[in-house]
Amino acid sequence: MEGEPTRASLSEGPGRDQSGSKVYNDPIHGQISLDRLLVKIVDTQQFQRLRFIKQMGCKSFVYPGAVHTRFEHSIGTCHLAHKYVKSIRRGQPELGITDEDALCVEIGALCHDLGHGPFSHVFDCNVTPHLPGAEHWKHEGGSIMMFDHLLETHPQIREELKHGRDGDNIEFIREIIRGTSKHGDENFIGRSKDKWFLYEIVANKLSGIDIDKWDYFVRDCYFLGVGCSFHDSKRFMQFSRVIEVDGRRRICYREKLAENLYQLFNTRVYLHQTAVHHSTARLVERMLADALVLASTHLVFEGTNGRKKNLAEAVHDPVAFGKLTDDVFTRVLNSSGSELAESRALLERILERRMYPHSRTLCIANVNEEEINRKAEHAIGSLLNRDDFATDMVSIDYGQGSEDPISKVFFFEKSEPNSVFRLAPSEVSATLPVCFQDLRVVLLYKKEPTQEDSEKLREIFASFEHSVSGSPRRYLDKSESEN
User: Fold this and answer.
1) pTM, rounded to two decimals
2) Active site includes 29?
């Protein structure tokens, strides 16, 4: 039957081949079987490097179990890609999804995080923005660079991929990893327009519903040791359907999944509130980032043709970047040179739990950095040096900023499987939140405080908190607390 999964031989181009496949035992998905070509990719230095990149950055300093890595997350995401594409093919064979299409989606899922730097998002959110020449670097671009390097150093893999019958396979995989075309839009060239729905599976830039999240939501909760309201990706696969919307085929969902989708996005909020933006974890990440920025010109990695690259230069060189893992922490910590003394001292403070002093976390109506900085300067005054302070602002939302997370999701009814519509929150439940974004700010003091500094800091933080929140925190007296 057209569109049904088959097993193709190597002589027919990229396809399924049982010989050389491998089974991985995963704590989240159980037994995961990967195709021979996927195993070849896993067994490369570019992919194996992910064993040394923690998925949750510095969260293990607060949640000791959160030491899982990008390696297992990438394999889990690949597994979900296989299941999702298989589900769509079985339900809608008329879409003409081929083995070649399916394998490319799986490779895109497998390689989507190849470009993560040390401690994952700590690197591209808190380190590279402060490195000259790397300010605009993002891990998605790093993943494309490392994927291209993988193909360059393993020509047999490139050879199996480049001669595609269904389109430009290599560019198709790059676009899956990126979630956009190379121009940053949806004018994809790896596949024809009738298959553009395949780009929504791994990194869905439209609705944010994708298998990347389906894996890491469950995986992160599991290793953090916290509950997870989202646990059944099978239901999303079973009740999704590809339908033409405004001239383009898109993945749509049964209307009865609306509440499940809110649960999915609520898991994101819960993870951010509980772990991602945990106050102590944020302090650790900020101190680590400051240490790496201070050390950036002194950390040297051997790159292409033996050229030496510092931290900012390494992100643009795949050979040097391949040596950039979480071990930068111990590399700085165990150093002895005076040039790394400041960075080393910060890491020692992390290990000894001597964190940056800070104000309490404050909720704010909107992110206005100029106004927040003005209030910080006013609070600090002449008591201490303004350059020794920093503000840390974060957004905790449902994935779409202040917007309703399902505002960009298309739904269909069982009785009208080819007609789509959108749902307003009031049509789903009266108990949904009216606001989908929480903005928070903290004022930090980056130096190790003396006794005299500590007294001044109490005054500064109290003034800042009052200025931002509009009123000081009111504590109940004994009579009130007993009522």
Assistant:
1) 0.92
2) no
